Amino acid sequence: MNAFKWKHFESHIILMAVRWYLRYSLSYRDIVELLKERGVQVSHTTILRWVHQFGPELDKRIRRYLKPTTDSYRVDETYIKVKGKWAYLYRAVDSKGQTVDFMLSSSRDVKAAKRFFRKALSSPHNQTPRVITVDKNPTYPPALQQLKDEMEIPQETSIRQTKYLNNIVEQDHRFIKKITNPMMGFKSFQTADYTLKGIEAIHMIRKELVKSPHVPVSSLVDFISELFHFAA
């Protein structure tokens, strides 16, 4: 699939603008100025559309390259402002800090927790959890028990409600918050979801949680270019 078909700008310019927005604490207008210095005239609304299109596409394309996780999950959620109200970004990392998965939700209840765990369990790079560490959020134990009863996770999977063991995922939130806080909230749930998928994807690449057969993953520019020009 040619993701750049019918685009007015060259692919490397589009990917550069998207990468800057998802990686650094920059506004769309900041990126307009940076591109202008390079002789590229583009509106901030065009960059916004690029981010909403290529953020989710980046997340989708890196999935096949993600390294296997360990079987110890650390789960927590952080707050994201959408349309002036708080939404909840569920996130999990393994014992080594590798991203297990993430999911934006408008609610923070048993149903949302189950959706998140199902999403994490469906990813082929994730091992079946031996232990899941959560904080004192009361929705996690019943959600996990229901998944056990429905045989979606093994009965022997243990659940630990210990806040201090979750420091690793709370610290991992910091990169996401560093990028999203200057955005002053999202206008809609959909645009928040699109943007967060791109931010999380960049974060996973930066943490070197992907393996590439062709270029060093440490080269963020080359790896993203490879994903969009050579990956299926």
Short note summarizing the structure:
This protein is 46% helix and 16% strand.
CATH H-level superfamily of the largest domain: Ribonuclease H-like superfamily/Ribonuclease H
Instruction: Tell me the Rg in angstroms.
Output: 18 Å
Looking at CATH, which topology of the largest domain would you report? Nucleotidyltransferase, domain 5
Please work out how many helical segments DSSP would assign: 8
Task: Please give the number of β-strands.
Answer: 5
Distance between the termini: 7 Å
What CATH architecture of the largest domain would you give? 2-Layer Sandwich
Under CATH at level 1, the class of the largest domain stands as Alpha Beta
**Structural class label:** alpha/beta
- SSE succession: HHHEEEHEHEHHH
* Range of helix content: 40-55%
Biggest β-sheet, characterized? 5 strands, mixed
Number of domains: 2
Residues in β-strands, percent: 15-25%
Low-confidence runs:
none
- Looking across the biggest beta sheet, what order are the strands in? 3-2-1-4-5
Function: Involved in the transposition of the insertion sequence.
InterPro entries: DDE_dom, Integrase_cat-core, IS_Transposase, RNaseH-like_sf, RNaseH_sf, Transpos_IS6
Organism: Alicyclobacillus fastidiosus
Domain Integrase catalytic: 64-224
